[in-house]
Amino acid sequence: MSGDTLQILIAMVSYMVIVIGIGLYFAKRANESSENYFLGGRSLGPLVTAMSAEASDMSGWLLMGLPGVAYWYGLSDAFWTAIGLAAGTYLNWLIVAKRLHNYSVAANDSITIPDFFSNRFKEEKKIIMTISAVFILVFFTVYAASCFVTVGKLFNVLFGFKYQYMMVVGAAFVLFYTYLGGFLAESASDTMQAIVMIFALVTVLTIATYAAGGMSVVIENSRLIPGFFEFFGIASPATVDGVQQLVNGVAQFNEAGKYGLYTILSTLAWGLGYFGMPQVLLRFMAIRDPNELKQSRRIAALWVCISLSAAVFIGIIGRTLFPTELLTYSDSESIFVVLSSNLLPAFFAGVVMAGILAATISSSDSYLLIAASAFSKNIYQHLIKKDATDKQVMNVSRIILVVITILGIIIALDEDSVIFTIVSFAWAGFGATFGPITLFSLFWKRTTRQGAIAGLLSGGITVFVWKLILRPIGGIFGVYELLPAFIVSSIFIYIVSKNTEEPSEEILKEFEMVKKQTKMP
Known about the structure:
This protein is an all-alpha fold. The protein has helices at 3-30, 34-39, 46-58, 65-73, 75-106, 113-120, 127-159, 163-211, 215-222, 261-268, 278-286, 293-321, 329-332, 335-343, 346-384, 390-411, 419-443, 449-470, 482-498, 505-517, and strands spanning 233-234, 239-240, 243-244, 246-247, 250-251, 257-258. It has a single domain, classed as Sodium/glucose cotransporter.
């Protein structure tokens, strides 16, 4: 191992030690009760609420997946995705955050998302809770796998270590400190990691722009590639068996593809996913004072806009500086690593690339913890062992943490996995399963329990059917599965609710009470 490589490794290991320290610091408080372990005792301040929500949401795909899309396909796909995500972030904080916080308190002080849905409809038989918990387990296992892929790729590219070994080490690290500190450790470390992530993105963007000769040079070079720097076109790398072809050392592209309105709407649909993201919704529930959510919203919106913009242009600039370095779609997701390691002093590069670890860790800990709570609180305590003590619930959650980690590792074993593709599927799953029912539960008092069940099932099933069966057909079915699944779920909720008995007087009174409590910011 060279001296430079050793410096990078030292910087990244130092960062990981700090994160473990945070887990140890919060371990005692987290173990006081399951509410502290899973929701931090509703004690988060506005800064921690905002930063931890965005860090847990974005994951490693922000520093690897999104720049990889821009490097491979050009501006349009990454740009419209970023616009959808930015809009979805702001609207979620604006219209959902405060009402969900108040409603989760009113609905029997719910501390998980399945808890809230079940309590909102006053379930006796916990069908909504069970369905919600199962979908959370499935999609968060996939999500965790995407994070493990990120760690494996990062250390493989940097140090030449075998991908599978590094992926397992990264997974074990995340498991260890999530196991210790729970939600409080996760939220505190996520705040630090959000700062590291935005610092890394802005630093690499600035240095890379300078190295390329300025943004005007980058734009001029990008326009030489068909469809690469267009809002309504898309680049098409000329590949053989997935590998981009070189002629006299020049990367080859086919004619530009069209990026029409239908495709734009499909890409913007990423924003719909926010209304169903448990890791974000939990932050709304956990803030200490709902009146502080306005401040959190401003912090989150600013962070998201800066981070997404930087990530997109890092991919664009990377194609100018290293046009032939990464010749497969999977490899293109390493452009942030390539830029950092080539343009920055070794130790500083290690600090910047700790941003990738930050993004990955901040997300995977959320995914593991929420999935574990979904099983231990919503399935084990409510269905399997109704007299389970708080300690038993927490012990079961830790066992499930290990099980989910192992399943995520199995999914992530393929080193050719594309992070963006894995994330997009899990994102669609949560957005279509939980997004519509979250909105209907909060804003339409006529929503019934039967409608909620229909919406959960139809949304989740449509994601799988559209992704695996219909989307490969292409044409009108080529749209991102989140959009049709979100629409289908909404239709089912409305039709079934209108054709079933109105909610009870108790449910209606609680809805009106929360509505009065919650003034639009």
